[in-house]
């Protein structure tokens, strides 16, 4: 117990300012060396302490630093002694109702983590009985509800959560919320925990009561989706209680709204019980009295966003339509409530969220909403309150986007009026009003098309990039979105303005400009692209760039070459481009790998060896000359692979290997593979940053398969190891790259036993990939392809994985709604349903 003594000495030496840091270092050293020994030390501390206040901070530190709570790679408790884990649960329970908030919070987090991780462990820790018995004690000790709120989501789906259990939990939570939402809650609370709070002030009691209500509402929100519809009458009775929280003083309005949102989503027939109240003007009056009203307004808007989205799935409900006239006035009032003259760039302020909700509602009820918005515009377009002038432009946007010919609005007359309001908006002294004029112009162009009025607006919009610093970024963004319009008339003017703006030292502004220039490359004709390429070539011939700007101009250069393709030779541009690339290679080292590779793809005939050349050399057999073009590009790639710019080299390889005319790389193939494998085993590059390397090897597999198979046994192990180290389920591109690599391996003509480890890795990656929301289409497509490929070889493994992986089961339940190969999905479903 030497470490234990050192920990106590370090922590109790309050005179030394570094004592707590020393204690933290000791904790880290101990938990990394031996998990069970560390756990015994913790238990000894908890048992030996007299729980006096002197140990509270120490115990909090210990609990917060528990390995099973903080280590990202430990998903279960298999490495721990089960008896120690159960003992820790018992000991931690003591602190769940501590009056010390830090200790209570840390112990709740630890307690919940133990229970959750135990559910995913191979050892049977019997956590469900612990959880259910734990729940029965909540009313006697309401502070335990914080721990319940952290874990209830993970237990609701288990079979032990029978309708009867859920009903009992529901009634218990309602009882607690009822007691603590009334003036009588102080007396109840003091009876509940008289010993702990005997010396507490009224403010402390009030604060703890609010905490209990807040966490109680979180628990209620978690169990509501799982309640049987038979309980709908009981659920309806909680609505007045939730409204009481909503309109009460200093109560958790935000969490009450979450519960109302959940009731709305799962039990929408109950909407009539509270919708008229939430659509009333009393709502705004009540919330604006709060010191911190923004979170509540945001949750309120989130509630209506849920309502609007739900309306897309069910028949229009009269109760919602009847609420709209009052509701729109409330939403418009929030939309006009901005307190700062420039829009919040991340869209987090209530006025922007209100605009989003207004858009949703307008899209669903244009006939009802558009006349109300039109009336608002007529009243407020010239208001002295800039938020109302801003809201009129927002209203114009939505009318332009969703107005119906049968709405009763004279569209031609309205458009003339809108033109005047937008022009006035461009000249408004407040930047956020001018910002909204830009977006109105976008809608004016996309909905009405090019005419005299819209062209005038477009000219003003383009000039805003250089003459209105406050909204220049927004103007650049809008340009990038409207260049795809048919017969867009100002490509050259836009390119000139955006090139100037791209040189900004403000990297956010420069990034916006580069994004819009890329959009122009996607949409412009060959003549415009040639004009654009000439500007880029002039820049490389005459300018020096910062690292950031150089990389961005290189990407534009690459995109232009890639898009122009054969036009490079048609207009005799190859030599000029090649000169810039070779000269630039001396000046910028490996940065020009990408345009050089794109040039190989655009002009493959310049890089293909003579038909009479040897297969294993780059020398021409007839005259012993060298294909200098190809040698230069490949050597550039090989050099870049050994540098910090390896990702450029990998991208260049992919461009070349995916060419319609494959340039023979066999002479360098072995060296390329060895360089890629050196990157895969490098400890200086993390697994996620090796995505480009994995994709390059996958391209070699597809384009140079014999060479890949020849090196298969040395290629596979490092990729398997890197895949096993991936932990971030939100790195969709990285996960897709590894999944697609192993999927290609599953399709190789090699013995099935060789595919067992890649198959295991695929299941691990799919398990990780299905942890988050299923909203990345490329990743979804990768998963479907992988499961299909595995199913052709190991169908029983697919069924077993489906049975044991809840996240994959949920993923497959949505499979028919994905925009992917339906035949593959059907094949997978057939495998899952087979005997």
TrEMBL record:
Localisation: Cytoplasm
Q: What is its main location?
A: cytoplasm
Q: Does the keyword Protein transport apply?
A: yes
Q: Which InterPro entries match?
A: ARM-like, ARM-type_fold, Importin_beta
Per the UniProt entry, what are the Gene Ontology biological process annotations, in alphabetical order? protein import into nucleus
Source organism's superkingdom? Eukaryota
- Gene3D superfamilies linked to this entry: Leucine-rich Repeat Variant (1.25.10.10)
Which keywords are on file for this protein? Cytoplasm, Protein transport, Repeat, Transport
Q: Which GO terms describe its cellular component?
A: cytoplasm
Question: Per its UniProt record, what PANTHER family does this chain match?
Answer: IMPORTIN BETA (PTHR10527)
Give the protein name, as stated in the record: Importin N-terminal domain-containing protein
Q: Which organism is it from?
A: Tritrichomonas foetus
């Amino acid at each position: 117990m030497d470490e234990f003594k050192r920990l106590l000495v370090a922590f109790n030496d309050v005179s030394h300012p570094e004592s707590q840091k020393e204690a933290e270092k000791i904790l880290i050293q101990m938990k990394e060396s031996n998990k069970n020994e560390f756990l015994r030390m913790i238990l000894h501390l908890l048992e030996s302490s007299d729980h006096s206040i002197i140990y509270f901070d120490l115990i909090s530190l210990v609990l917060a630093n528990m390995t099973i709570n903080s280590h990202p790679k430990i998903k279960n408790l298999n490495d721990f002694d089960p008896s120690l884990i159960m003992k820790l649960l018992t000991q931690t329970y003591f602190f769940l109702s501590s009056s010390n908030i830090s200790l209570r919070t840390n112990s709740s987090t630890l307690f919940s983590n133990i229970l959750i991780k135990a559910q995913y462990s191979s050892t049977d820790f019997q956590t469900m009985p612990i959880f259910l018995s734990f729940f029965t004690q909540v009313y006697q000790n309401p502070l335990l509800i914080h721990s319940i709120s952290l874990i209830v989501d993970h237990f609701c789906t288990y079979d032990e959560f029978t309708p009867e259990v859920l009903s009992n939990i529901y009634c218990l939570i309602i009882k607690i919320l009822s007691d603590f939402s009334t003036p009588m809650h102080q007396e109840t609370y003091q009876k509940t925990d008289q010993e702990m709070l005997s010396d507490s002030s009224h403010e402390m009691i009030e604060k703890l009561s609010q905490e209990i209500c807040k966490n109680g509402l979180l628990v209620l929100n978690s169990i509501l989706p799982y309640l049987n519809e038979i309980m709908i009458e009981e659920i309806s009775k909680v609505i007045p209680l939730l409204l009481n929280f909503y309109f009460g003083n200093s109560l958790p309005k935000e969490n009450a709204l979450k519960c109302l949102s959940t009731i709305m989503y799962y039990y929408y027939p109950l909407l009539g019980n509270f919708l008229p109240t939430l659509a009333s003007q009393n709502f705004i009056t009540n919330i604006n009295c709060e010191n911190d009203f923004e979170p509540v307004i945001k949750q309120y808007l989130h509630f209506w966003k849920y309502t609007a989205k739900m309306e897309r799935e069910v028949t229009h409900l009269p109760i919602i339509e009847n609420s709209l006239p009052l509701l729109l006035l409330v939403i418009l009032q929030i939309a006009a409530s901005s307190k700062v003259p420039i829009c919040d760039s991340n869209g987090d302020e209530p006025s922007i969220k209100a605009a989003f909700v207004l858009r949703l509602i307008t899209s669903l009820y244009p006939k009802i909403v558009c006349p109300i918005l039109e009336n608002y515009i007529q009243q407020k377009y010239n208001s002295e309150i800039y938020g109302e002038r801003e809201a009129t432009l927002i209203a114009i946007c939505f009318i332009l986007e969703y107005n119906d010919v049968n709405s009763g609005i004279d569209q031609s007359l309205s458009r003339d009026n809108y033109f005047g309001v937008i022009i006035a908006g461009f000249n408004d002294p407040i930047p956020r009003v001018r910002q909204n004029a830009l977006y109105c112009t976008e809608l004016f162009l996309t909905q009405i098309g090019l005419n005299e009025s819209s062209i005038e607006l477009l000219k003003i919009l383009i000039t805003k990039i250089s003459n209105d610093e406050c909204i220049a970024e927004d103007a650049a963004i809008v340009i990038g979105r409207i260049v795809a319009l048919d017969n867009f008339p100002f490509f050259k003017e836009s390119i000139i303005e955006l090139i100037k703006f791209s040189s900004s030292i403000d990297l956010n502004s420069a990034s916006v400009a580069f994004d819009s220039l890329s959009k122009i490359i996607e949409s412009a004709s060959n003549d415009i692209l040639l004009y654009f390429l000439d500007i880029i070539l002039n820049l490389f011939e005459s300018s020096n760039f910062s690292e950031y700007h150089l990389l961005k101009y290189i990407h534009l250069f690459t995109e232009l070459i890639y898009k122009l393709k054969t036009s490079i030779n048609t207009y005799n541009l190859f030599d000029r481009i090649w000169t810039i690339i070779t000269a630039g290679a001396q000046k910028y080292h490996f940065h020009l790998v990408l345009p050089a590779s794109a040039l190989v793809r655009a002009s493959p005939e310049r890089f293909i060896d003579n038909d009479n050349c040897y297969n294993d050399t780059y020398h021409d057999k007839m005259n012993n000359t060298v294909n200098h073009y190809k040698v230069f590009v490949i050597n550039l790639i090989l050099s870049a692979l050994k540098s910090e710019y390896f990702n450029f080299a990998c991208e260049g390889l992919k461009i070349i290997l995916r060419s319609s005319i494959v340039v023979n790389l066999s002479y360098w193939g072995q060296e390329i593979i060895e360089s890629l494998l050196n990157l895969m085993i490098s400890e200086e590059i993390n697994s996620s940053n090796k995505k480009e390397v994995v994709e390059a090897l996958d391209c070699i597999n597809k384009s140079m398969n014999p060479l890949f198979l020849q090196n298969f046994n040395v290629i596979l192990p490092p990729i398997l190891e890197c895949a096993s180290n991936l932990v971030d389920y939100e790195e969709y591109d990285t996960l897709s790259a590894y999944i697609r690599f192993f999927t290609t391996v599953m399709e190789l003509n090699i013995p099935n036993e060789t595919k067992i480890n890649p198959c295991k890795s695929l299941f691990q990656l799919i398990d990780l990939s299905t942890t988050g929301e299923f909203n990345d289409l490329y990743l979804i497509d990768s998963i479907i392809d992988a499961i299909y490929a595995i199913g052709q070889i190991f169908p029983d493994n697919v069924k077993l994985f489906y049975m044991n992986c809840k996240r994959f089961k949920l993923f497959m339940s949505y499979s028919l709604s994905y925009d992917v190969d339906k035949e593959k999905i059907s094949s997978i479903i057939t495998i899952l349903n087979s005997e």
